[in-house]
Amino acid sequence: MRLLNTETLEVEEFLNDIPIYAILSHTWERDEITFRDIQDLQKAKKKAEIHGKAGWSKIEKACEFVRKFRFKWIWIDTCCIDKSSSAELSEALNSMYRYYGDGRVCIAYLSDVPNRSVMDLDEFRKSRWFERGWTLQELIAPRSMVFLNQEWNMIGTRFSMRHIVAEVTSIPVKVFEDGIVERYSIAQKMSWAASRKTTRDEDMAYCLMGLFGVNMPPIYGEGGVKAFMRLQQEIIKHSDDQSIFAWVAFRDYQRDRGLFASSPSEFASSGEI
């Protein structure tokens, strides 16, 4: 994996003996700094100055925050993955859950939560960070997590805010207390993703691979339904949990559906199964 040096802002690749690192969870904006951008730091800085790239500020602020706790390395998905390489992208998507689980701490940057002297919990609850597909695994996998507002000030930890997070996400509080997800059925875990969205339809399936402990190659262009069908096929290869069939179609279909759901949204009412 590649890690970003928090002092030099240079990316370095590690094949083994991975150093201790922090990891960033965030929602993507239009002006993120990519792996290609960060290869030339001076060019990236100049580009940010000219075009006002908030993505560069995000990288600097993330590094500045974790340096306070003596982290030399951080993993940031925007600039630590070469997305021009389909092989590397596939490896990263299949390894993402492990990346977040192996990080010493995850900092969740909620860019739409204002910095106020008195915390407005409604603004925290309404953050779009809770609506995205990829942030589901980023919420569950880390060993520890802190939430930061748009000014990079700490809102609280995942543990201290576990009851509010559970209310927003419908994920049981015990998940944030002991981190054991194996006790929950497939249907329950699918229901946690039911209301979430991804920019690309296929990612709604790919972002759940780690949560269910399966791997499969991403095929962008196959469509969200086919990707989710493939995910379920992989899951039943490794599990005999029949709750995977406990879904409800909310649309009228003119064809036989078969045994599999077409998206996590069809598990919306399966949270207690």
TrEMBL record:
This is HET-domain-containing protein. InterPro entries: DUF8212, HET. The lineage of its organism: Eukaryota, Fungi, Dikarya, Basidiomycota, Agaricomycotina. Pfam families: DUF8212 (PF26640), HET (PF06985). Residues 226-249 form the DUF8212 domain. It comes from the Eukaryota. Residues 21-115 form the Heterokaryon incompatibility domain.
